[in-house]
Amino acid sequence: METPRIQRDARPESMLINMGPSHPAMHGTIRIMLELDAERILNAEVEVGYLHRGFEKTCENKTFFNLLPYTDRLNYVSPLINNLGYAMTMEKMLGVGVPERAQLIRVLMSELSRVSDHLTCLAAMAMECGAFTVFLYMMKAREFLWDTIEFTAGARMTTSYIRIGGVRADLHPDWRGSLATAVRETRKVLKDVSGLLDENSIFLGRTRGVGVISKEDALSYGWTGPCLRSTGIPYDVRKASPYLVYDRLAFEVPVGEFGDNYDRYSVRMREMGQSLRLLEQVAALIPDAAPLTGSLGLEPAEAIRRSRRQRPDERVHLSPNLEGSEKERLGGLMTSDGRVGVPPKEDTYTTMEGLIGHFLFFMSGKGIRPPKGDVYFSVEGGNGEVGFYIVSDGTDRPYRLHLRAPCFHIVAALEQLIKGRLIADVIPTFGSMNMIGGELDR
Amino acid sequence: MGNETLIEAIRTKLAAAVESVSESLGDQVLTVRPGSLRSAMAALREGPFDYAVLLDLTCVDYAAGEGRFELVYHLYSMSRNTRLRLKVSVPAADPAVDSLNGLWKNADWLEREVFDMFGVRFDGHPYLRRLLTYEGFEGHPLRKSYPWRLAQPRIPMKDKA
Description:
The complex is a heterodimer. Chain A is mainly α. Chain A contains 20 helices and eight strands. In chain A, strand 2 and strand 3 (40-47) form a beta hairpin. The longest helix of chain A has 29 residues, at 100-128. Chain B has a single domain (3-123), classed as Beta Polymerase, domain 2 (2-Layer Sandwich). In chain B, the strands form two sheets. In chain B, strands 1-2-5-4-3 form a five-stranded mixed β-sheet. A two-stranded parallel sheet of chain B has the order 6-7. The chains are: A mainly alpha, B alpha/beta.
């Protein structure tokens, strides 16, 4: 067995030490091998792959519809953006358009996820620098955001809410209330955290001028997202190649100056402010759900009670965020293209044709079958450009599906950033990168 | 420079390297001869083309039908905001291509991943070692010949080896 380079080349008088894979600050399982002279890092080697679970291989064995839940588990802090990246790649391949309402909901969900992603990253980074209060504050704000997501999608993290051709169901009836609370609470937390950290000399001492990367190196490493912007390059997929309705919304792309840990912190903080702005804009653009024609229908409990005697003919009144609850709502949420969307449940359960349509969608070898060819599409994730490269051979399974994980490129630079620094600098540098094992190791 | 003129310019400049030019769903695709990959990449990175970012590298296994692996590079030009897809085919019997180490820093890990998953050798890579799987892993999991859910042999414990 070949010994790692760092062991082979180590000077006899220096000390080799492992940081991770199981270390309190290595959230996400990563092994950093360090060659030390006292506390000075002479050399470093990063070993990843502890969370490798064969995502790409699994996808090759799943249908295009089936594999969506696996994308939740890539960047598990902002699963909706992964859903979006995959769904939009497939839409580009199929040439499918998405209704306006669904596009607005997608932007809303993306921005909620982005804020929760940045909050998680900064919370962990601050906690590792000793600022436990910040961690608690930010986790609190994240709960409010995830409440909003959970109301509509039914899950906090494994949402699978954004589907190829649209979104799964409509927003929760009370989404405006929960969103307003989330935005208000997050603003409050951002202000508090700013006050705690921005001029905190301990925090500044561990972040200012630590983990510095130049513009040239950041580009050479393929950095994207807030980490690239911290060096002063304003590259953001939402601005560079706008998707959904981002070109109609007003937001700025905050940039840093020095590319150090503090700039990565500060860019993320300011970006959350912009995302909250976007949330408010897009909430104003989403019209209230149109009332359904006809009667409201029976309450579910009443319908069950009546059905004990005879089958009720009336419509049952269900929450709009239940999948397939009301066929009439689907028009604004899903493309009308029959190739990509799950047929409405009302038809499946009441008509023969609907049932046949349902089986044709889910049967192996049928379902979503994009034309032969390959496609690459990317969206702006919490960490940077989340890109999917999909090769189709005309069947209902991808011939090859590859994820361009933003933090793969960022973590690749970790060795360079910590070489020559002190061992304590590893913690904030690694923390500010927001390494997410799910998308790094796939 | 519009997209068409740009592709024409690349074609003229790299006439010896370019095998074909095509378009796939609005993306420009360039197929390059394996022998001239490194020189073509070096030319694209600099000067008027300015594809300064290596966005992504992956591989597709066509070994069963066509007897080849296809390496897919995605480049991005920050100044012109365009992407370019580059494809290189290598024979499945002895898959090897020049490493891009030295041109881009992320080529190191990207190539290690492709080596790990597909067994494609990158000549000139200073440290071609498995990245996502471990030392002692048998086979290359993303090859089509590798069955899904194949069990791996146990490896000896590291401190006893």
